[in-house]
Amino acid sequence: MAPRKRSTPLSLDPTPARIDDQSKAEDLSVNTVQPGATLTDNLGHGVTDDNNSLRGGERGPTLLEDFLLREKISHFDHERIPERVVHARGAGAHGYFVLEKSLAEYTYARVLTEVGVNTPLFTRFSTVAGSRGAADTARDVRGFAVKMYTSEGNWDIVGNNIPVFFIQDAIKFPDLIHSVKPEPHNEIPQGASAHDTFYDFISLTPESMHMLMWVHSDRAIPRSFDMMDGFGIHTFRLINKAGDVHLVKFHFKAVLGAHSLVWDEAQKIAGKDSDFHRRNMWETIDAGGTLEWEFGVQVFTEAQAAKWDFDVIDPTKLVPEDLVPVQRVGRMVLNRNPDNYFAETEQVAFMPTNIVPGIDFSNDPLLQGRLFSYLDTQLSRLGSPNWVELPINRPLAPVHNNQRDGHMRQTINTGRVSYFPNTLGGAQEAKAGVNGYVSYPERLSGVKQRARAKSFADHYGQARLFWNSVTPVEREHITKSLAFELSNCTVRDIRVRMLDQLEQIHPVLASQVAVVIGEAPRSKNAVMPGAGQDSAAEVALLGTATARTTASGKLQKASGLSQLENQPMSPKGRMVAVLVAPGTDAAQVASLTAALTAAGAKGVIVGPHLGTIAPGIEATKTFGNTDPVLYDAVMVPGGEGGARALMARPEAQTFVTEAYRHAKPIGALGEGAEILTASPVGRLLRSLAGTKDGTAPAQGVQNLSEVGAMSLTAGAAETLATHG
Ligand code: HDE
């Protein structure tokens, strides 16, 4: 076993004393095979033949004494641990958090007050419902779990990419999850909420309506991990040196902005590359890139919160950014892939109870339940209380306590003392306010009862606020998604009950869904506005409905909810398919891919076969092994022979047409434009331009050949998606 520095959190902290200890400890847990190393069994015995078991005679029975065979097979038999009961499918990366603005006014947590200090971290993204082998692009909430190895112990923000949750009380979590998981009699469907049991439960659980709107929005089908925001969801407390308390919500804002796939793409990607998200993160980091978020906080006081018409400890409610802006105070950067998926990503154990001095919990009843669940689940999943010794879970802060023994104990505790109080050299208590955790001394009083607070009673106000705050095209995606899922429910009563719920959110939403699932819109106001348009009728209706918006801080519309308004836009991280064939202009391919790289995007050469297509053009993907859904844009370079060869390939035309259907930019250089004019895209543009006979090129296509590139509008692409 060759010592190697770290497989787990790399120290980037300029105060390295504690880090050295950690690196030493980890030398023993990292195994890097040197080239030519001798193969051994688990106990260090050299293995001379790893291909044949020990037999009595060349064709005889295998002998029980073959300890090498038994050890190898037995270890294999035990290779699996239970997958997470939720969030089973995930991918993680190492990185760091750096604070740019001190929050000392609100907290004494070192991680939130020491500006410029890099805190190592490990972040795992996940889907919730699917099992470990499910597809990345399922419509689902994404787990967004961050473990910071701070100098005061581990701090985990175990959040999601959606700022609210389905339920208000932890006691409903097993019901929620049982309803969304594959149905127990036939284990169908995998990683999908479009089935009876989920909507049976949801339609009887109005508190889930706000979250449901988010789950049917494009947030639930993100383009990549680094194009989604993260939310701590619950309200937490910050306590400063003077003992003052503030309330806080934690945010991670994607530097690239929150961007999504469209549903048709997401479904197809699930088949074409079910590892789409994890591959993207892996390849970005492997190529030397980073994934980045701004870390932000919404800080407010109890007094402010008391004035709002919703309860800040109700996890189905968010605090609109118009009431409390998000202050951006730090940055999370992911820059290192795990060395070993199982050892790190699978064994990482997040717990909302991992908290540091200066930060405390609120009484959010969902959070309170989670404070029990995560330790319990780690014991079952990782099998022993010593899971805290796994390299990925160990803190960088020193550990000294009197906990001992148990299954698979790694630490060799020396000395006689394993108790407190002691005088024989054992650990002594930390000092409050210096190096120890102190709970906020909240005054508690109340009657013991099983009850839901009255302040949690409104279930539709923020759902409606969300609907009102997103753009028409986002609203259209929500209605289509709901119609898709409900149309997959086989029990009519459930579908109808859901319509009753949607009606409470917004009559337009309910009417649009009703029509697709074959029900008459019940509202007397029911109008069917044009797709994605704010028709006069819809605007009128919206007016009626927003007047009823409640639990929203009296807002009719809130900023920060739409993904199309005020999101950063950047070519960074985007994948562009460059279609080539023999005869394609190599110089254009070279300058195009160089320009894409310079912009932070990646050009991928797609040709009829792998390898050299023409001098200077190397294809890394073929029309057969890749697909337009895997790219953000398509470019067709010029070169007469190349254009002709591409025209002769139906797959190339499909590439362009499919990209167009999904409203992606398509560009062409020189003769490359011919494939666009010949494809259904060209035909559509000609028909839009009124030249139905197809003889005269449409304006857009003419411009394309003259200017050399064009970007198609989402509106035109939607036309093709709807009609074509
Ligand atoms: Fe979790 N959740 N959860 N959850 N959760 C788990 O812990 C649970 C909730 C979240 O990448 C489990 O280690 C209860 C909200 C993430 O490893 C389990 C309740 C939020 C991850 C568990 C909730 C989350 C988990 C399963 C209701 C967003 C994946 C495996 C009271 C704020 C972490 C594990 C990773 C994982 C329980 C609700 C986020 C069973 C009881 C709300 C990101 O302990």
From TrEMBL:
GO terms for cellular component: cytosol. It catalyses: 2 H2O2 = O2 + 2 H2O. The keyword Oxidoreductase applies. PROSITE patterns: CATALASE_1, CATALASE_2, CATALASE_3. Keywords: Heme, Hydrogen peroxide, Iron, Metal-binding, Oxidoreductase, Peroxidase. The active site is at H87, N160. Its EC number is 1.11.1.6. Transmembrane segments: none annotated. Its cofactor is heme. Heme binds at R84, R124, F173, R370, Y374, R381. Residues 29-41 have a biased composition (Polar residues). Residues 1-58 are annotated as: Disordered. It is an enzyme of class 1 (oxidoreductase). Pfam families: Catalase, Catalase-rel, Catalase_C. GO terms for biological process: hydrogen peroxide catabolic process; response to oxidative stress. Residues 40-428 form the Catalase core domain. It comes from the Bacteria. Belongs to the catalase family. HPII subfamily. Decomposes hydrogen peroxide into water and oxygen; serves to protect cells from the toxic effects of hydrogen peroxide. This is Catalase. It comes from Deinococcus aquiradiocola.
